[in-house]
Write a structure and sequence with these properties.
Order of helices and strands: HHHEEHEHEHEEEEHEHEHEEHE
Number of strands: 13
Strand content: 15-25%
CATH class of the largest domain: Alpha Beta
Shape: globular
Number of domains: 3
Structural class: alpha/beta
Largest sheet: 9 strands, mixed
Number of helices: 10
Mean pLDDT: 85
Length: 310
């Protein structure tokens, strides 16, 4: 069993598809197939269930993948640590986030302080973040949903109120607050399943014994106010969107009479991971730029006022 075989297995296990794994690895498909067969023979158990050309990771494969990812992450950490010790280049930092917009200010400050460091960004869901962290593919995850575990460390940067955006001509537009039960017949603009806006929307409705009617879903949360503004539906947005859009906002904003209606932004990293000097600088800057001045981690951020005082 060698490292190459383990990396081949990890790719196949993630894709559950030989051809896609071969494309990721940039090797010939027969080479990947032979490696997996040889690995299974060495271990003495099948790692995949095969039905025709389809393969699915089985219970043995799932258990093996968990340990393989830990082992490869440790080896990659060791390689980076030795490279830093040898002064081999400025290094790199990798970050996963549900939306990359939140990272703009952090990245600007980081590039100014560490101009030669390569930064890799992954836009993904919270479940994929867990996999990226476990395998060592990213140093940090910036999560808007709970991401915890015995192998993870986290720092809650801020909790921000989430508001309801409605078209300006909507009957609710003149209201200050609304109960979730009143929204039962409304259509919603939301992100796809797995993202924090969708998870919050479904959780709020489930508490009332309801299911939200989603009329538009996608991955571009920043487009929600514009889509709501043209009358496509209602949407949930963090309070920061209200003051960011200011007077040019195409929507009216309401508070929801619901407990725990906020977004929590958390920085997460693997507990035993090696964090390079560049990664430590990134973490410090994330705290400085994303945590509101004067607030301790975990304290609810007060809603900012609109430019006109509303």
């Amino acid at each position: 069993m060698d490292l190459l075989s383990l990396r081949y297995f990890r790719a196949v296990a993630r894709h559950e598809h030989i051809s896609r794994a071969a494309e990721e690895l940039r090797v010939a498909q027969p080479s990947v197939s032979r490696t997996i067969i040889r690995l299974e023979a060495e271990l003495g158990v099948p790692l995949f269930d095969r039905r025709g050309r389809r393969i699915r990771l089985n219970e043995h494969g799932t258990a093996f993948l968990h340990r393989v990812e830990r082992a490869l992450a440790e080896i990659d950490d060791a390689r980076r640590e030795m490279a830093d010790a040898a002064g081999d280049g400025p290094g790199r930092v990798s970050v996963a986030a549900e939306t990359l917009l939140q990272l703009a200010a952090v990245l600007a400050a980081f590039q100014e302080q560490r101009p030669g460091v390569k930064v890799r960004l992954f836009q993904t869901t919270v479940e994929s973040m867990r996999r990226h962290l476990r395998s060592g593919e990213v140093d940090f995850a910036l999560a808007s949903q709970p991401l915890a575990g015995p192998d993870l460390c986290s720092l809650e940067l801020v909790r921000e109120e989430v508001l309801l955006a409605v078209p300006r001509g909507h009957p609710l537009a003149g209201r200050e607050r609304v109960a979730v039960a009143e929204l039962a017949g409304e259509g919603f603009v939301s992100t796809r399943a797995g993202h924090w806006q969708r998870a919050l929307l479904e959780r709020l409705f489930a508490r009332e014994g309801l299911t939200p009617r989603v009329v538009c879903e996608g991955d571009e949360a920043a487009a929600t106010p514009e889509l709501v503004g043209v009358g496509l539906g209602l949407g949930l947005m963090p309070a920061v969107a209200r003051w960011t859009l200011g007077e040019r906002s195409p929507v009216a904003w309401l508070r929801l009479d619901a407990a725990d209606c906020h977004r929590t932004l958390t920085l997460v990293w693997r507990r035993d991971a090696y964090l390079s000097p560049a990664a430590l600088d990134f973490r410090r800057l994330a705290m400085e730029r994303l945590m509101p001045e004067g607030l301790v981690p975990g304290r609810l951020m007060p809603e900012r006022l609109m430019p006109d005082g509303t």
